[in-house]
Specification:
The structure is a homodimer. Chain A starts with a helix and ends with a helix. Chain A has a three-stranded antiparallel β-sheet. Chain A has a single domain, classed as Winged helix-like DNA-binding domain superfamily/Winged helix DNA-binding domain (Arc Repressor Mutant, subunit A, Orthogonal Bundle), CATH 1.10.10. In chain A, strand 2 and strand 3 form a beta hairpin. The first copy, chain A, is built from five helices and three strands; from the N terminus they run ααβααββα. Chains A and B meet through helix 2 and helix 5 of A and helix 2 and helix 5 of B. Chain B binds a DNA duplex through helix 3, helix 4 and strand 3.
DNA sequence: CAATGGATGTAGATTGTCTACCTATTCCTG
DNA sequence: CAGGAATAGGTAGACAATCTACATCCATTG
């Protein structure tokens, strides 16, 4: 009989803190709805970045509260109602900021790993 | 009057999940104690990677439980008692694994950011 | 003898992610 | 026309890793 700790395997597939950046970047290619963002990230990354709905929707709501993105109900090409998001000016600033921090961090980690 | 949420700013400076990898890599350069690991990471990364003691020591204990590292009390050059860690064979396997996952993830994120 | 630096540690808050569900609609196929 | 797949949005609760803030002990130095 396994302990709950062993049974419950919570694997963070996505590096914590990168989701907002990835969503903002995706919205730079034009307004997009949640489901579309997931697909775009998945296909464009060669199936590596798989965002769960339980991560994505809370993130979108969070970012909307922070006013990094703005939303509007529309209808997709598949004739389904969907909430389309676009990045605000503040969102674009946030993206630039996130990205610069991300690159600093990656470079720092590389300098350790390659030493 | 600010809300608690505004007052308490918890910034994750280190990308979640990378600490174990960084510690294991540091130990590849030879046995080292906690304080020394912190310093090594800080100086070798050009002051970018600042590991807090509240992150480091729990991580070391966790990794010891997982048998990725093994410890021994010794005395430093400064004549202070310290707990020296070394990577086990399993720890070296873990490092290789972490590193490969990390590189896959970084490449995937780069493919999004550079699109 | 006080201050500084070396060294280890814990408690509790916070956050973001994950798993596991649920709902609704449209379109296609047998 | 029933049923399933795909599209689309969502929530609740578990969990892990990090952070802040604090505490302790010892050795060296002024």
């Amino acid at each position: 009989m396994k302990s709950e700790r062993e049974v419950y395997r919570n694997r963070i597939e996505l590096l914590q803190g990168t989701l907002d950046m990835l969503v903002l970047k995706t919205l730079q290619w034009g307004p997009q709805h949640g489901y579309g963002i997931t697909q775009a990230l998945r296909t464009r990354s060669g199936e590596v970045l798989q965002v769960e709905t339980g991560s994505l929707y809370p993130a979108l709501h969070r970012m909307e509260r922070h006013k990094w993105i703005a939303a509007e109900w529309r209808v997709t090409e598949q004739n389904q109602r969907a909430r389309f998001y676009r990045a605000t000016a503040e969102g674009r600033r946030q993206l630039a900021n996130d990205r610069s921090k991300w690159e600093t961090m990656v470079a720092a980690i590389a300098s350790i790993l390659e030493a």
